[in-house]
Amino acid sequence: MSTLPADPSPAPSPTTPAPAAARTNTTAGNYFVSNYPPFGAWKSEDVEAYLGVLEQPPRPDVPLGLYTHIPFCRKRCHFCYFRVYTDKNAEDIRGYLDTLLQELTRYASKPVIGGRKPKFIYFGGGTPSYLSPDQLGFLTKGMKELLPWDEAEEITFEGEPGTLTDHKLRAIREMGVTRLSLGIEHFDDHILEINGRAHRSKEILRAYAYAREIDFPQINIDLIAGMVEETEEKWCEAVAKAVALRPDSVTIYQMEVPYNTTIYQNMKAEGRLVAPVADWETKRRWVDYAFGEFEKVGYTVTSTTTVVRDPQKVKFQYRAGLFSGADLLSIGVASFGHLSGVHYQNQHDFQPYLSAVQSGRLPIYRALQPTPAELYTREFMLQLKLGSVSASAFTHKFGTDPRTTFATPLSTLREWGYLVEEGDRIGLTRDGLLQVDRLLQEFFDPKYRKGRYA
Ligand code: SF4
Questions:
Q1: Assigned domain for 177 exists
Q2: pLDDT digits over 157-172, tens only?
Q3: What predicted TM-score, i.e. pTM, was given to this entire model?
Q4: Among 2, 69, 73, residue to substitute to test ligand 1 (most atoms within 8 Å of Cβ)
Q5: Which residue's C-alpha comes closest to atom 5 of ligand 1?
Q6: Ligand 1 and 211: CB distance under 6 A
Q7: Residue 5, ligand 1, Cβ within 6 A
């Protein structure tokens, strides 16, 4: 499970009268806001602009992050909308890893890197832990030779519990991973099975215990509220089991059903408009319940999806960098990156990605050069997902006060009862935070309000 889940029910327009009372079914589509302008606005015409910034030195004092996409999984979960492959053999995988290193080689000498070393690194997927220790060793040795990791303050690695043996976890720790993120999603074997997950509860407990023994500095676990056949009772049990593990942080997504999922394909075949999962109000209530149970044992809610055991110690630099305009060099099929203020996405199919890199080109599929106003909106919206934004920090960085720039959407949120204004901070109530992706539509330029996240 990667980072990006979604109110696929049509987001309310600014004129929606009573959002607080909305009880909406889960219908198909994405709702999770992970970037701005929406991916649907990115286009092949902007690829030249992106290639142009690669030849310029980096913006001063902008940190560099590195994202590596590993698109292989044991099987495809029914709710998955990522580009993943379940049919690749060892030779295909070796060819992919070689290609990743070739892609990174092309970037390493570009002026935009400017001799910088990554401050944070993220292995996402797909399932990075699908790779064997030997494959991981080959990949990371090559990556470190091209862009050394000695300044990296955080290295995150996503793992699927059923792929994590003791031996592999040791190899992952030895390659320098500081933050292990386990895609647990649920603890109930029936729910895991009916949703197409490859792992079962026994494997979760075994992998978690090994990981604790090895002493990863941070272990995050992912859960999903509202999977197919979720019930009140099973959700409460899942939360109790998650609390008992005492992870350093927990990321809780609300189940969404994008168009390219198996669940949606089944809905279409059966002529159903409503997905067979809980409605949005129920999912928000379940996440709220989970937040409350973690708060009872000392955790802090640090974003719309996250609780953290010790916020002083546990940081998430990848997210912090992404939400504050850092450069993100992303390699791999279908990956999304952001360099010198320009968004880009790589070729989203396996063979075109490989062919582009192997023929000496960068595998860019589409890009977007946002305007300064769009970059401002992007950063404000992403930071609001953390719960609150400092108006003075924004004014200092961008020269304009968000209370002026966003006077209209902020007044809408105030009217709806979701806004908390304390001194310098513009924040959301808990209820607002739990549906922030829906509320963020208010900050979108009208021309993007129908933009589809895909
Ligand atoms: S583990 Fe499942 S949800 Fe995660 S990327 Fe693979 S198929 Fe998709």
A1: yes
A2: 999 999 999 999 999 9
A3: 0.93
A4: 73
A5: 126
A6: no
A7: no
